[in-house]
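We store amino acids, tokens; thus:
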Amino acid sequence: MSDVSLSLLIFGLTYLLIITERIHKTIIALFGAALMIALGIVTQEEAFYSHEFGVDYNVIFLLIGMMVIVNIVRETGLFEVLAIWTAQRSDAQPFRMLLLLAVITALLSATLDNVTTVLLMAPVTLSITKRLDLNPVTFLLVEAMASNIGGTATLVGDPPNMMIASKAGFGYLDFLVRLGPIAVVILTVFLGSLWWLAGRSMRVDSSLRDTVLTLRIEDAVQDRGMLRRCVWLLIIVNTAFCAHGWLRLEPATIALLGASLFMLFGHRRGSSGTAEELSYLTEVEWKTIFFFIGLFILIGALVKVGVIRRAAELLVAYTSDNPAGTTIAILWGSALLSAVVDNIPYVAAMNPLIVDLARSRHPSLIDQPALLHQPDILPLWWALALGACLGGNATIIGASANVIIVDLARKAGYGISFWQFARIGVPVTIGSMLLSSLYLWWLFL
């Protein structure tokens, strides 16, 4: 059996077992990754050290750093403060809270990134729904999808956008002007559809509502000194995230620096010392971390044997002489593939294909920026960005934010199955692609 067939078989069986949920997804992902290495499809060196085929440590350490920060901030009562503020601003009406949380999540994702955003927003959501005796699952699912929609709007909102910007020579304003409007439209339609998806069934006991409306924010603060220190540290960390390009620091480095500062200065004064400081590390969601490690190796094997690139080539090959057809094929094909595999290696495979297509269409152009910004090439970049970012809403493993939300819900005692996520995610993704198709047709075609 060839490496291509073997890697597809292992990945397919792994994916199938994740869907059935008979065995925990972390165990399955690690076993599949170990098989890829043991059978020589990827070497151990490639799995652990290759930027192209191995573990994306930028994502891993971003997650670890932010989980440590969230664990420390939780002790200050800040999430309860934000939960009470959100409830009171929405008059403790469940559907209004859902809309407000979704909008805040989308805005934060456009400013930071979707992973950081859901790590910050999920504890607030769990706190507010607990106070009102509401099931948080719908709230968390909506936030995961809002984070992916919001992240689509800007260069820094989602890693695929950063990769496309680097290859095509786009700036921050290019993404904001081109993708910002359609992200707002998609988010608006998404929020409007929530009434039919969940809003009509949302009810809260009037006594609980009255209790929440009379809560004093000051009473939720557990340690004022610790809260002040943590708020200042959060401002510093989030400012660094926004300016990471200027600082020339990867988000993972900022998250680790931030986590170290929080452990040094954010913990309670007079605490028991090293043991308590290290407890923040033991509370990291290590099952989630190892799931991502296994998933990265599995997808890296598909990249190495050429499966991802071949899929990308097929998207372009059959429509290469038809600019409109190529644009729509890349949009929908990117969404489909991003729902199944990580969008980062997929975009890495697609970028050079679009460059090659540009050269074949305009062989006389030597200037690279002019070549990649030709009127028939520009829509391909935006189709790739929209499909890769929004396609992740379809499944649990389609985006990092989805995996994190599901694991945080499970930790709080609320299971979210693959199909439960897909029942909302697939229609949202199809609707997003339809709106994106109309937008690209109106804008370029």
